[in-house]
Design goal:
20% strand, alpha/beta, 11 strands, elongated, 255 residues, 10 helices, six-stranded parallel sheet
Length: 255
């Protein structure tokens, strides 16, 4: 069996670990990640090979054809919708079976905290924040969507929490975020750490994605409630997929 996992998430690492520890002699498990940071998440896992580097639609198709894979597992981030679309297209063109590994939900819809504002996109959150003329903002949505906030909100009001990679830090600096306003740390973060960052930087508004299980999403909501600040939540896109156990069942059915 030749299996390709598009990783980059906690689920991708857990799946790779379980498969690597239980693979048969002739099995080949390749995990594709976009960056060196993704490769670090897989460090020390037995029985897998790691491919590092972003691929566009054509490059994915070529990679799949050359690899002659039996199945492709999409374990990318719930918000990486463009990547998921590209993987689906490449699988369709190459005739390789595609399965989406869905991250478990950790919804804040039932929380009683009244200062939660749900938004459909980063752009909508930024537009609403633009109306708030004062108060510091803690962005925990990553560096990719940073520009939609810096175009609308004065950079001196923004504090950005990102993964500690050179490319992410450079992106923040390029978008006008001062170095003192960059919190480059590896998450997820506990409620206590979130409270610490909120108080340390005098935060009035926190922006997060509804990223699901293992992302630290609910801890950010709880920290916002504890400190009395407003939290803007980017709603999770529709994510049609199956659970970890269902994915494993499908894989082990392959001869």
């Amino acid at each position: 069996m030749r299996l390709l996992i598009f990783g980059g998430t906690t689920e991708g690492r857990l799946l790779s670990e379980r498969l690597g520890n239980n693979k048969k002699i002739n099995d080949e498990i390749i995990v594709s990640v976009a960056s060196d940071y993704g490769m670090e998440m897989l460090h020390g896992l037995p029985g897998i090979k790691v491919h590092v580097g972003r691929m566009d639609k054509k490059e994915m198709e070529s990679f799949l054809r050359e690899g002659v894979f039996d199945m492709v597992i999409d374990a990318t981030h719930p918000f990486a919708t463009e990547v998921t679309d590209n993987i689906k297209t490449a699988c369709s063109k190459t005739g390789i079976r595609y399965i989406r590994l869905k991250r478990g939900e950790e919804s804040g819809d039932d929380l009683k905290y009244e200062r939660i504002i749900f938004c459909k996109s980063c752009e909508e959150a930024a537009e609403k924040l633009m109306i708030m003329k004062e108060g510091n903002v803690l962005l925990t949505t990553g560096s990719k969507e940073l520009e939609c906030f810096t175009k609308r909100i004065a950079p001196e009001r923004l504090f950005v929490r990102i993964i500690p990679t050179e490319s992410s830090i450079d992106k923040c600096l390029l978008d006008g975020i001062e170095q003192e306003h960059i919190i480059a740390l590896k998450g997820p973060f506990s409620e206590e750490i979130n409270v610490k960052h909120i108080r340390e930087h005098n935060i009035s508004y926190l922006v997060t994605k509804e990223s699901g299980t293992g992302s630290g999403y609910l801890d950010k909501i709880k920290a916002s409630e504890k400190t009395g600040i407003t939290v803007f939540v980017i709603k999770r896109p529709d994510d049609q997929g199956v659970s970890m156990e269902e994915v494993l069942k499908e894989i082990y059915m392959i001869p």
